[in-house]
């Protein structure tokens, strides 16, 4: 974004305006005006609320732009009126003025004008509220469940999208573009809030309730979000990303999510990793299709170990770009930038490539496996579990050896 | 109750004290030294004690704010860990709301309402003392948790179920809930006391529509407290019963609805916002006319808009819950009511500007703070209007934009008003004027500091930085110079500028205390009754209770309109009016004696709640204290036999009872 | 002693400070009980395996104890009337009777709580249990505080002069007592009589 020329011009404009209004008011005025201008020189922050990338967010944006403008103008009028009276009616030895107690006609007029402005705003607001609450035009449903401190996505069977068996994922919400997606949100513990600013406003995920949020993306891309209802210790680390793929790419993603489990090659490091996984991780983390040595399916039992009852399903971990509740990137910085900065027609292919050995963010993943609570504050320390009857809230320290960690990483890399 | 009596003399009334104490349970008589404060029931002393305590908690809350800003000065801050940060922002808000702004307003109300309505004390002086001590002990109780396992960490809004015993296993929230319960009772007693005082004890001739505007706004606040406090009381009881006695109120597994807490909290919480800003609106509405040398423009409009805010304030609570999932109909209704409440608020701003319009403006520090309030509160008010647009609010709620919004309302509106009041009334309270030069620096540093701190938060919020995050990351900060890191750093620097501004106030207080120069009797050429007495006022406030003929009675005793030119002509000085009063002083002025029981009773409450958390035996002990104190209170004699006084008994004892009995 | 306002004898409203104070306080109490009643109404059907309201309520028993409490309002009126006439002995008598009727009601509530507990409704059993005990418990505490105030009044009147204020104080406590009775009528109707 090349804003510098415009920025300079505006800056000069502001300084000259400020010179006119006088020295004393400069700070009052200057700061608020400059703030506004600076806000308009947006910096491509990934959660910018003024850059809608879908019709729902656009609807909100179209509503808020004029409201902000009107509010700005009114603010300016008030500031100018105050500054004017300060300059004009300063005590210069004039006599004590007449003790007038007000002019009711003027007062009533000045009461009615803002009321009328607000009435107009109200009409448009009402329209938007009901449009954003519509659910009868839904084309696709995704269930979203919040839990301290990650999100689970569960795609119910929807044959028209090739989803013939439920898909359970976490961290990144993958959705087709140009499709009216309805999120059905709930929570397993405390209240969380789902927010992808580029696609829509936020909606709380409340335990015991199911609440809906419309999402639709115009073009393929990755859109950042963040849990916005304070949800305890690691609230700051509870992130999410929405990945919009073209319909064709989305079909490929669905196919991959439903692909059968591929066991690691015999006698490879990854196979040893599978053993470590079966020994340690499977207590909470499910990998669909994983078998124990005795040929029985390995079924995770997170409800026995985790207070809220679930842990992320890792079946296709390497098809995601993040881990640990989207707190960390699975992709190295360089590979991540390549995906994020890709144009909308190439981003799908880059995303679907998943995480290769070369692109893996080894450092963070290994640290996580070494001591997760040190990476992300969680109630996972044995001394903190009295209130939950010994159950964890978050991934505990597992005392894995460096060897085991290497094996595990090799194994996780096979979970494409 | 003790009696202060004197024979008619030309001098000001003297304080006569009983020669002995009386009654079975004796009341302290003519206490001196620290006893004069600890057992006092004098509304002015209690007002000052409220103020000093509130200032102390302001500093505590300020230090918490600075730690927050230090943590957020750069990405991935390491000053505080997640746990401590969560405690810090919870306690910052709790402290500032419940232990600074509310008691500071209570202090102003206590000190100035009786003076403004021409009364000698409040209706229930002992209950007034009880209120102060409960507030103090409640505040200390909440903060005790810092030293006993950690403070509350659920945010000041304390949403269920995150406030439950599973999710917050320390005792922080127990202390928080019980402590707020105690300060809540304090607010309630204060509200009852001041409502009765205002309704019943106005000087002759002072009709409601001749009442000073500060008293009016404070009265609205007391009604809001009267009806809002019991709602949070219920919510806090539900929370405490769940945490300490196994109730299931917010246990989702038992079928509980977490939104119950949100409704109860915000039915209290939104009127609370007006409880926090209306006192400052009252102060500004006093200060602007004085320094514009004009009456408040549209006094009835300001009164009714204040009352309207008080009423409509009850119908907007769910605008805090636009993202909670209320359904489109509720959202639309609360959207509309929220827009509606902007109208009376706008009326106030318009009236303030029109008060200055055509005036003769004197830019004292108090006036500067008031003018600053008009502009900065308007910023907060307008960002509030943008929130009433519910769809837009779902983008901005729980981001820094909201933090910016309510700090412009509560700091730009609330705190600037409080400082305006402090500068304006300082000579009244202490007989000395705060240094105006330092005051000027104080004002500008605070205003610049607050804009630097909270201004950038608008931008941060609109660019998507959520609140209540102990760290922000570079990955979500945006590109270029003006990214999150930049604006967060600006905000952090601003918070230190703001701190210097507030330190200057404290320095000013010390300098003023050491300066022997006394303030003139009427330093600002003021308009209302509180200035019609000495600085500081005598224990009995007025030598003679004035009969009121005008709004701005004091001004109209000093000035008269020239019917030809409509200009004002001085007919008397404040000193002359004062001398006139002293000549006509009342013969018998009866002030209530100090009492031991308010502080004892108030002390029993935190003992009970401490016991509720740790050991029921301690709670029983606390209950015994409360019970004993209540009986001591009830049995305390309200009148002394007339023979107890040195002076001639000119009145029968039954008539001697007095300003108030609580 | 010409200027009576100096001594706070006159009041702008014509109502004494204590009475106005009590009215104000009762206004606040309305919201307290409003909050508790709302909570109960929201949660009364949520029993999670514990007993349902209809399974444990003993309407005839509670009706009788409610009647006792209502009668205490009548005796309270008699006490206030006697106090205004300056009939000290009668005042004390009716205050004592009022307190005894109140105590009977509280006794009934204690019996009822014990019975419910034995039938399986504990404080932690269900949302219904928690909110039922909280609401009726709060009311019971109010009645108990009323009884303590009544008995204290009787005690104070016996031992000392309360110059000119006796009727005033009796009336003020009467206000409180009637309020607590009215609240019970609402609670009894909403909690016991209206089926879930």
Name the CATH superfamily assignment of the domain at 45-256 in chain B.
Answer: Cytochrome c oxidase-like, subunit I domain
Kindly name the structural category of chain A: alpha+beta
Helix/strand order of chain A: HHHHEEEEEEEEEEHHHEEHHHHH
Radius of gyration of chain A: 27 Å
**Quaternary organisation:** heterotrimer
Please name the CATH architecture of the domain at 45-256 in chain B. Answer: Up-down Bundle
In helices, the fraction of residues of chain B equals 55-70%
Average pLDDT of chain A works out at 90
What is the strand tally of chain B? 4
Question: What is the CA-atom radius of gyration of chain B, in angstroms?
Answer: 26 Å
| CATH topology annotation of the domain at 4-132 in chain A | Helix Hairpins
β-strand amount of chain B: under 5%
Number of DSSP strands of chain A? 12
CATH topology of the domain at 45-256 in chain B: Cytochrome C Oxidase, Chain A
Please sum up the structure shown.
The complex is a heterotrimer of chains A (416), B (662) and C (196). With 416 residues, chain A is an alpha+beta fold.
Features:
heterotrimer, B: 662 residues, Cytochrome C Oxidase, Chain A, two-stranded antiparallel ribbon, 18 helices, 61% helix, globular, disordered N terminus, C: 196 residues, 0% strand
Structure description:
The complex is a heterotrimer of chains A (416), B (662) and C (196). Chain A is an alpha+beta fold and 416 residues long. Chain A has a domain of 129 residues: Helix Hairpins, CATH 1.10.287. Chain A contains twelve helices and twelve strands. Chain A is elongated. Chain A starts with a helix and ends with a helix. Chain B is mostly helical. Chain B has a domain of 212 residues: Cytochrome C Oxidase, Chain A (Up-down Bundle), CATH 1.20.210.10. Chain B contains 18 helices and four strands. In chain B, the strands form two sheets. A two-stranded antiparallel sheet of chain B has the order 1-4. Chain B has a two-stranded antiparallel ribbon with strand order 2-3. With 196 residues, chain C is an all-alpha fold. Chain C has six helices and no strands. In chain C, helix 1 packs antiparallel against helix 5 and helix 3 runs antiparallel to helix 4. At the A-B interface, helix 2, helix 3 and helix 4 of A face helix 3, helix 8, helix 9, helix 10 and helix 11 of B.
